[in-house]
Design brief:
This protein is mainly α. It has a single domain (about 10-185), classed as Endonuclease III, domain 1 (Orthogonal Bundle), CATH 1.10.340. The protein is about 55% helix and about 0% strand. The chain has helices spanning about 20-25, 35-50, 55, 60-65, 70-75, 80-85, 95-115, 120-125, 145-160, 165-175, 190-215, and strands at about 130-135, 180. It has a two-stranded parallel sheet. Helix 2 packs across helix 10 and helix 9 (about 145-160) crosses helix 10. It binds zinc ion. Zinc ion binds near residues 10, 186 and 188.
Length: about 220
């Protein structure tokens, strides 16, 4: 029988809002290697500073529209008139420092791509190119920052990135799956996904078996 989505156990932070739950179920913690999407999430995490993630998530489409779908090459060229346009846009967080940071970050992002070949290769080195999978029993055990997020923050700052403190970096690392912080009982924890996969593989085998038996009896 198909599991009812609302009956699944999931990290409690996403409860009570469909958009939040959808983000938790289909995006948070899944490894991202696409430069454009990594840049989008880095800017959104920075925009979130001092606000709730849901506030930013609800504005995501407005952000994409306002920021040229997060194509850094275009954002890097934004001048005074584009910044004025952005600061008048009620669809985004209208904070001058955050808007200016997005432009500076686009320029720094392009420099990293040039140096490392891709932003993804550069970022993933902070976790040795493989996701760090944690085994937290509950939300209270999840840290706000780690040695890896501090190292990433320090390096990004040295390269001219803004709004990239260790806490923002850690939230970013969770979002793009560099760390997996789904709690152990959450259906999205890798151990539960693996168990689920094994079960569905077994079901497929059962179905095949039944079919071949049916053929034999005919
Ligand atoms: Zn979860």
């Amino acid at each position: 029988m198909k599991k009812n989505l609302t009956e699944l156990k999931r990290c409690e932070w996403c409860r009570g809002n469909e958009l939040y739950q959808d983000y938790h179920d289909h995006e948070w913690g899944i490894p991202v290697r696409d430069d454009r999407l990594l840049f989008e999430l880095l800017i959104l995490e920075g925009a979130q500073a001092g606000l709730s993630w849901l506030t930013v998530l609800q504005r995501r489409e407005s952000y994409r529209a306002a920021f040229d779908n997060f194509h850094a090459a275009q954002i890097a060229r934004y001048g005074a008139s584009e910044k004025t346009r952005l600061l008048a846009n009620p669809g985004i967080i209208r904070n001058r420092l955050k808007v200016e940071a997005a432009v500076l970050n686009a320029q720094a992002f392009l420099a990293v791509q040039k140096e490392f070949g891709s932003f993804s290769d550069y970022l993933w080195q902070f976790v040795n190119h493989a996701p760090l999978v944690n085994r937290w029993a509950n939300l209270r055990q999840v840290p706000a920052e780690t040695p890896e997020s501090k190292a990433m923050s320090r390096d990004l700052k040295n390269r001219g990135f803004r709004f990239v403190g260790p806490t923002i970096c850690y939230a970013f690392m969770q979002a793009v799956g560099m760390v997996n912080d789904h709690i152990l009982e959450c259906f999205r924890h890798p151990e539960n996904l693996a168990a689920d996969n094994a079960k569905s593989q077994a079901r497929k085998r059962d179905t095949r078996f039944t079919r071949s038996q049916l053929r034999k009896t005919r």
